[in-house]
Amino acid sequence: MELLPRIPLAEWIDAFVDWLKNAEFFFDGLTSFIKFFIDGIETILGAFPAWALILVIVAIAFWFGGRKIGLAVFVLLGLLLIDNLGYWNDMIITLSIVLSASIISIIIGIPLGIWMAKSTIVESIVKPILDFMQTMPAFVYLIPAVAFFGIGEEPGVIASVIFAMPPTIRFTNLGIRQVPTEMIEAAESFGSTGTQKLFKVQLPTAKATIMAGVNQTIMLALSMVVIASMIGASGLGTAVYYAVGRNDAGGGFEAGLAIVILAIILDRITQSVSKKERS
Amino acid sequence: MVAKIKVEGLTKIFGKKPKKALELLQQNKTKEEILKETGHTVGVNQASFEVEEGEIFVIMGLSGSGKSTLVRLLNRLIDPTSGSVWVDGEDLATMNNEQLRQTRRKKVSMVFQNFGLFPFRTILNNVEYGLEVQGMKKEEREQKARKALELVGLKGYEQMYPNELSGGMQQRVGLARALANDPDILLMDEAFSALDPLIRKDMQDELIDIQNKMQKTIVFITHDLDEALRLGDRILIMKDGSIVQIGTPEEILMSPENEYVERFVEDVDRSKVFTVEQVMIRAETVNADKEGPRVALQRMKEAKISSIYVTDRHRKLLGIVHAEDVSQLIKEGKDDLKEAMETEVPTVTKETVLRDMMDLLTERTNVPVAVVEDEKLKGIVVRGTVVAALSGSEVKLNGTSS
Lengths: 279, 402
Ligand SMILES: Nc1ncnc2c1ncn2[C@@H]1O[C@H](COP(=O)(O)OP(=O)(O)OP(=O)(O)O)[C@@H](O)[C@H]1O
Ligand SMILES: [Mg+2]
Prior knowledge:
Strand content of chain A: under 5%
Transmembrane segments (chain A): 44-64, 69-87, 93-117, 217-244, 250-269
Number of domains of chain B: 2
Family (chain A): Belongs to the binding-protein-dependent transport system permease family.
CATH class of chain A: Mainly Alpha
CATH topology of chain A: MetI-like fold
Low-confidence stretches of chain A: none
Protein name (chain A): ABC transporter permease
Mean pLDDT of chain A: 88
Strand order of the largest sheet of chain B: 6-7-8-3-9-10
Strand content of chain B: 15-25%
Number of helices of chain A: 12
Pfam families (chain A): BPD_transp_1
Distance between the termini of chain B: 28 Å
Helix content of chain A: over 70%
Order of helices and strands of chain A: HHHHHHHHHHHH
Largest sheet of chain A: none
Number of strands of chain B: 16
Structural class of chain B: alpha/beta
CATH architecture of the largest domain in chain B: 3-Layer(aba) Sandwich
Helix content of chain B: 25-40%
Shape of chain A: flat
Largest interface: A-B, 18 and 29 residues
Mean pLDDT of chain B: 88
Shape of chain B: elongated
Bound molecules: adenosine-5'-triphosphate, magnesium ion
Organism (chain A): Aliibacillus thermotolerans
Oligomer: heterodimer
Structural class of chain A: mainly alpha
C-alpha cells in the first residue's frame, strides 16, 4: 500500500475551489441578492409588534390549516411562550432565513421538477444528483458555502437551499408524472397547448404532491438553518450553540423548545394545505 | 366527395422497436406469435376503411381487440407505426402541431372510455374546457356548456365536482364536454357503457337526434351488439387488431363473414333490428272510387286471399273488406264497397321495427298489417315473411317499397 502515493483528492478540490473564486463577481451578486431577500422578509416580519404578528400567524394557521381550533390554540400558546422566554427576535431571524431558503428552493425547484417530468433525459441526469445531495451529511454543505460566501446569514441560506431543495424537485416531478394518462389525453384531444396542459391540468392535479414536497423542503430548511449557526447564521440555532458551549442545559432546552414549536407550526400549516388539496 | 375520415393501412404496434414486429405482421404472423417472438403488442393491424360524412360508424370487438387504440389514432393521440389517417382529405401525419391543435379544437372531439374528467374542476368548468383552451370569452363558453349539460340531462349539477356524481353521470359529463365544442366529428369510446338501460336508451335517441339534426359524423365504439345495431349506419368488427368485417347492420346479421362475427350476432334479438321496410310486400287493393264488390271478390280469388285493402284513387287507405262480407253485398245487390268496409285497421310505417308490431301480427293472424306513409298505402306485412326474417333463414328479403 505504501507504494501507491495517496491520491491528493483534497488538494484537487481546494485547487478547484480556488479556481472557482475567480468568479467572485458572481458570488458577490448572489450574496447581495440573498441578502436583499432575507432583509426584505426580516423587515416585513419586524414591522409588526410581537402581539400583532402572533395574531397574524394564528389567523393563517386557522384559515390555511383546515380551520382547526386546536391548531390555532397551539400556535397562539406556542408563540406566546417563545416571546415570554425572550427568544422572539431570534425566532424572527430564524424564520426569515428559513422562509428565504424555502422560497428560493421553491422558485428553483418547481420549474426544475417540471422540466424533469417533461424530459426523461433530464430526469435521468438530475435524479442521481439529487440522491447524492441527500445522502451527504448536512453540515458538509457548510464548507463550500463558507468558501464562496464567507460567514453569516447568506451562506446559511445557500447551504439550506442546496440541502432542502431536493424534495420539492422530486415531488414536482413525481406529481406531474402521476397525472392519469386519460386526463392528459383529454387535455390534448381538445387541442391544449403545452402550457395550457401544464397550468390547467398537470399542475392542478399534482398540487397536493408538490405541496408535500414543499412541506419537506421547509422542514429540511429549518434543520439546516439551525446547523448553519455554526457559520454565523444567527437566530435560535446560535442560542442552542452557545448553550452547548457553556454547558447551559436550561438555556439549551429553552432555545431547543422554541425551535420545536416553530417546526411544528410550519409543518402543520403546510401539511394541511397539502391535505386540503388532496381531498 | 372525399370521405370525412379515411384510414389506410393503419397499424399501431406497442413496444420499443416496432420495426421488427411490423415486418412479421406483414408476413401475416398473428398478434400472439408476434407477442411471443418480439414482446411487442399489436394494437391495430393494417386497418383500412372510410367513414362518410353524417354517418354513425360503429366499431365493435371483444376487449383488447384494439378499438380504443384505433380511435386514438383517428385524432393522433397516438402516432401510428405505419399507415395514414385523413380527416376531410388532410393527412394527420403531415400536420404540424398548430394545425393538429386546430383540427382537435374545431373538428374532432372525443369522449373517453374512463371519462377523463378533471377532478379539481366543477362539472361546468369541465364541460367548458374545450372552449376555454380556444380562448372563448367566459360568458359565451359558460352558456354553451350549460346548454350541453342540459342536453345530456345534467342541468342543476353545474357546480358539483366529478367525484360527487355517479359513474353514469360522469360519463354524460364527458359527452357534454365533447358536444359543447360542436365538432364535425365525434369520437365516442364506449361512451354509454356506464349508463343504466333507461338512460342509455335516452342517450342513444339523443345521439341519433343530434346526428340527424346536425349531420355530425360519429365514430362510436361499443361492446354491445344491440347498441351497435340500433345506432350504426355501418358496423366495423375487430379481432386482435384486424378488421374482420365492415357492413350495414343487416349485412352483418344476414351474412356474417366468419365464425367470429357469427358468434357475435348469434344471440342478437333480430326483431329489434329489422324494420317493416325490409319485410313488406306489395299490397293487393281495390279502388273504391271506381271499383265495386265484384272486382274486389275477383281480385281476392286471383290472389288467393280472404281480405283486401280499399283505397281511393290517390291510393289513400280507406279500410279493409273481407270476402264473406263482399259476397253478402253482392247477394243484396248493393254495389258500394264502402258499406262492407271495416275502417278501423291497424297500420305501421316503414320505419317501425318488427318487435314493435309483433302484437298486431299475433292479434289478427290472417289479416295483413298495412304499411302507411302520408295516409297512403305503401304495402303490407304478412306473418310468413316476418317469421322467416326473424328465424334468420336465408330468405331473400325483397323490400317492394314505393
Ligand atoms: N399504451 C399501451 N402500451 C402497450 N400496449 C397497449 C397500450 N394500449 C393498448 N395496448 C394493447 O393494445 C391492445 C388493444 O388495446 P385497446 O385498449 O385498444 O383495446 P380495446 O378494444 O379498446 O379493449 P376494451 O374493450 O377493453 O376497451 C391490447 O392488447 C392492449 O394490451
Ligand atoms: Mg377500449
